[in-house]
Amino acid sequence: MKTDHHVILRVTAKFLIPIITLYAFYVQFHGDYSPGGGFQAGVIFAVGIILYALIFGVVEALRLVPATFARTLALFGFLLYGSVGVWAMLNGGLFLDYDFVIPEGPDGHWGQHIGIIVIELGVLFAVAGSMLTIFYAFAGRAPEIDDEDW
Amino acid sequence: MSDVANTAAQVAGPDLSVILIDISVLTMMAITAIAIARLRSLFALVMLSGVYSLLSATWFVIADAVDVAFTEAAVGAGISSALILGAMLLTVRVAKEDKPLKRIAPMLVVVITGAILFYATIDLPGFGDPDSPANSYLAQEFLQRNYGDIGIPNVVTSVLASYRGFDTFGEVGVVFIAGVAVALLLGFGERSLSASLKKKKGGEK
């Protein structure tokens, strides 16, 4: 264990990080009705992990979210977005034409709803994974933050 | 002012309290910008640019651009501060003092650009004017047909995800490529981290 110079910081962060992560998911899934969406949610989610890394150390954060997982997540999100477009094409529509995501009548909006939710999930994964990959690339190079630097 | 008066029923002009909030937020932004230009400590600079982003997010909220404000707060104040902090750890902590003569050219550029922008604001339509070009043509059309087309109340989401889904796909691609590019330039993190930890354990070198 490290010295306990930052006990207030640690306790506050332990309290805040779950709320930040939960808020990211709220922003994600409430994006149809209120400001926000995949980009903001992905960034907020990544900030929660980065806050954890800044306070408890990058090694601990790498055990929580491995770097391999982060970059796989980014790739998976990008492919998920693209695959919705290809799925609409396979169903006879144009690329990313959500009206063709599920078969329904001309006035139905379920295709649009499902399409938007899936591509926003893709945006969330891609943004969160890319941001964490960028952060790990920087943080992996730096030595651990000394106490004097705060 | 006379043609604005016709639409005054829909667009009430800003009252005094809004003007006071506008002035105070913009003054704080100006003070932060001057402090950023004068400071040399990189840590303070990162923190102040986060403060600047948060203030501009507040300013966007006042201007009713809530989605932009949200993005500015999350990206500008949140993750870019954290990422620049991470980048700062790789370099020195204090920026070099530059020569006084070298400051004249940037100052001139800033002053001239500012003067041109001030001159351009004279031609801008009134704030929230429903007859302004930005509010008249495509925006009207999207606001009217959005619910029938997509069935989602938030127009920003439906424009971003559905009408311009291809564009957003490109943006996600840009973010993904940025992540890949940084990882290719700096290494994936865990390997260089374990190397630096080994180096630390083995003493010098």
Account of the protein in words:
The complex is a heterodimer of chains A (150) and B (205). Chain A has one domain. In chain A, 70% of the residues lie in helices and 0% in strands. Chain A is built from five helices and no strands. Chain A has helices at residues 7-29, 38-56, 58-64, 67-90, 110-141. The mean pLDDT of chain A is 85. Chain B is mostly helical and 205 residues long. In chain B, 73% of the residues lie in helices and 0% in strands. Chain B has helices at residues 2-6, 16-38, 42-62, 66-88, 104-121, 133-136, 138-149, 155-163, 165-186, 190-201. Chain B is extended, with a radius of gyration of 23 Å. Classes of the chains: A mainly alpha (150), B mainly alpha (205). The interface between A and B is large, with 61 and 56 residues.
Strand content of chain B: under 5%
Q: Summarize the biggest pleated sheet of chain A.
A: none
Structural class of chain A: mainly alpha
Q: Give the CA-CA distance, first to last residue of chain B.
A: 73 Å
Order of helices and strands of chain A: HHHHH
Mean pLDDT of chain A: 85
Brief account:
The complex is a heterodimer of chains A (150) and B (205). Chain A is mainly alpha-helical and 150 residues long.
